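Summary of Year 1 activities. Much of the first year was spent building the evaluation harness for sequence design. The harness presents a backbone, in tokenized form, and records the residue chosen at every position. We chose the following record to illustrate the format because it has been used consistently in internal testing since the harness was completed.
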């Protein structure tokens, strides 16, 4: 009967799943409530004392193991929560900010968020902070645009605007950072190396010429777009030159840009 009582005390205490201190206290209460029956059954006092020590030790060991598991569980939940916040940040970037950023800038911001554990705003501020760089620039304007754009429903709406959008897509496909000023499609390239930037700019310029030729084959001669393309290389200040809390103006400024104008 004593063994059953001891086991009952240990299992009953462990089932409560409280702290180690509370478990030891609860065990003492349950065990003490049976002492009169143990004594009347002839169980020696030294056996009861040994049982108490053994029971408390067992309960503490069981609760210690559970505490480790709980700590591991909490740590895993914190890791999952951090991962969840990272995903939420990426979703926030996708849904609210991506449409306002060039693809190349967007990819760099995502890289800072994932690899440097930055918030969306921290990554954007870091990436868009004005800095000096050696860049390749592509400058593509439409000849005769001012005169032809008087035909809003014809030339402007059906030809010039789609052509500008198409040219912007070509720039972003070559990892350029576009900036539109009316019919002008300006872009700069500040990639991993100077050679990469120059090569991408030249490839982009050739692609712009090719795409424009293909475009003109599909439309009436009166609405054809006469576009010229210039390329330069040199020092410039790049990044956000506009407001921080207001609209951002991502572009390049300096000799490499001015010479194209």
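For this record, the design step produced the sequence shown next.
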């Amino acid at each position: 009967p004593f063994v059953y009582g001891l086991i009952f005390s240990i299992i009953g205490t462990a089932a409560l799943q409280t702290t180690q201190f509370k478990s030891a206290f609860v065990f003492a209460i349950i065990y003490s409530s049976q002492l009169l029956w143990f004594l009347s059954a002839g169980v020696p006092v030294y056996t009861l004392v040994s049982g108490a020590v053994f029971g408390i030790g067992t309960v503490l060991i069981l609760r210690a193991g559970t505490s480790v598991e709980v700590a591991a569980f909490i740590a895993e939940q914190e890791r999952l929560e951090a991962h969840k916040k990272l995903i939420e940040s990426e979703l926030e970037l996708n849904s609210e900010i991506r449409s306002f950023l060039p693809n190349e800038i967007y990819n760099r911001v995502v890289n800072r968020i994932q690899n440097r554990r930055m918030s969306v705003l921290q990554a954007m501020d870091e990436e868009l902070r004005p800095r000096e760089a050696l860049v390749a620039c592509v400058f593509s304007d439409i000849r005769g645009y001012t005169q032809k754009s008087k035909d809003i429903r014809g030339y402007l709406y059906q030809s010039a605007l789609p052509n500008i959008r198409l040219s912007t897509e070509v720039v972003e496909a070559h990892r350029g950072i576009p900036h539109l000023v009316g019919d002008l499609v300006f872009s700069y390239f500040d990639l991993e190396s100077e050679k990469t930037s120059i090569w991408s700019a030249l490839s982009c310029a050739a692609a712009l010429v090719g795409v424009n030729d293909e475009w003109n084959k599909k439309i009436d001669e009166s609405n054809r777009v006469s576009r010229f393309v210039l390329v330069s290389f040199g020092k410039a200040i790049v990044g956000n030159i506009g407001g921080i809390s207001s609209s951002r103006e991502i572009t390049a400024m300096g000799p490499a840009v001015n010479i194209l104008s």
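The beta strands are 131-142, 177-181, 184-189, 227-240, 250-253. Quantitative recovery figures across the full test set are reported in Table 2.
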